[in-house]
Design brief:
There is one protein chain. By secondary structure, the chain is α/β, with parallel strands linked by helices. Helix content is 37%, strand content 17%. It has helices spanning 72-85, 100-106, 123-130, 139-154, 192-202, 221-235, 239-246, 257-268, 284-288, 296-303, 319-342, and strands spanning 5-7, 15-18, 24-27, 37-39, 48-49, 60-66, 88-95, 111-115, 160-164, 167-169, 182-184, 216-219, 273-276, 308-310. Helix 1 (72-85) links the parallel strand 6 and strand 7.
Length: 343
């Protein structure tokens, strides 16, 4: 049974709350902080964990990410920081098959680069059929999610971390607390389409007051297999077909694998879960002006407050930055033309 969840008083830290459509309500400096919340288990024990100053080491058997060429610039920094800040026995990133050479050129050696198709043997036909009437540009988005599910279903490790390739870790942070419970970051970005898909698949209501769509998700692969088995039992067909059949092909984001797994975990394994009070930054582009501005000094400033920062495609620089970036692009174009003329 889920405990209580709600908002507590927000402290003086400046913040900006943003949803994935890019709308924001600014309060002070341009930063993002998910509001504090209270959550207790059936015994009244708080499940919100504050580990600052006593960070537990990561205990990952596998760190698994997906990435597209659109986020190559972010991944170049993210991949370096993943190895630096999050210790794992194995690192894997799945990318579109045609992008393998690109990612080999920008990814540090400890990370294995694999073709996305390796994990989509059962899922690709179901996804393509489900999205036939929808926007074909959304298909890669769902392929990444299904690749993560397939990879976790096959993973032979005790603990893994799913990671979005458009997100840069800023400092070490734990995936378990000092009692061995999986430690989750949460978001206040609750999308009705995600919750509806989970209800259709599992018959479960989402986690009260928060979303698990928070750029990363720690998992026990055994729990993932349990979730997928429940879906197959409820729907009497393979889980890729069942999940693909719940996606509205006209929706911009009709399904979240993080929301599916997090909701299932919270109903079946809440006693083995805890929730991080440590903040993370969603609006990296609008806060900094772009990934190219995340230099060493900016990293240090952000790392003093946040565990990680995301650079989502919908997030755009503020007007002043857009003008500056546009002017820089025009200047670069003019310089290239002049150089060609001299040649």
């Amino acid at each position: 049974m889920l405990g209580r969840a709600g908002n507590a008083a927000v402290g003086p830290i400046p913040r900006v709350y943003s949803d994935r459509a890019g709308r924001s309500s600014r309060a002070g400096a341009s930063a993002y902080r998910s509001p504090p919340f209270r959550c207790t288990n059936a015994a009244g024990e708080s499940l919100v964990v504050r580990l600052r100053g006593r960070v537990m080491p990561a205990t990952l058997g596998l760190l698994f990410s997906t990435c597209s060429p659109k986020h190559a610039a972010v991944w170049q920094l993210a991949s370096r920081n993943l190895v630096r800040h999050l210790a794992a026995t194995h690192y894997v990133v799945a990318v579109p098959d045609e992008a393998i050479p690109l990612f080999r050129s920008i990814t540090p050696k400890p990370i294995e680069i694999v073709p996305e198709s390796r994990y989509l043997g059962r899922s690709a036909p179901a996804l393509e059929a489900a999205m036939a009437a929808g926007d074909p540009l959304r298909l890669p988005f769902y392929r990444q999610q299904f690749a993560k599910l397939e990879a976790m279903a096959a993973a032979d490790v005790g603990t893994a971390l799913l990671w979005d390739g458009d997100t840069v870790p800023l400092r070490p942070f734990p995936v378990e607390d000092d009692r061995g419970r999986l430690l989750f970051h949460l978001s206040d970005d609750r999308q009705p389409d995600h919750a509806d898909a989970v209800r259709r698949l599992l018959g479960l209501d989402p986690f009260v007051g928060r979303s698990f769509a928070a750029q990363c998700l720690p998992v026990r692969p055994a729990w993932v297999r349990e979730c997928l088995a429940v879906i197959e039992d409820r729907h009497r067909r393979p889980w890729p077909e069942a999940i693909a059949g719940t996606i509205d092909p006209t929706a911009r984001s009709g399904f979240s694998e993080y929301e599916l797994l997090g909701t299932f975990f919270s109903h079946r394994h809440l006693e083995a879960m805890a929730f991080s009070a440590s903040p993370w930054l969603l609006t990296g582009t609008s806060t900094l002006g772009g990934i190219e501005r995340l230099d060493a000094a900016a990293e240090r400033r952000l790392a003093a407050e946040y565990d990680y920062v995301a650079f989502e495609l919908w997030d755009t620089p503020p007007r002043g930055w857009r003008r500056a970036l546009g002017a820089a692009a025009r200047l670069g174009s003019n310089l290239r033309r002049r150089l060609r003329r001299r040649e």
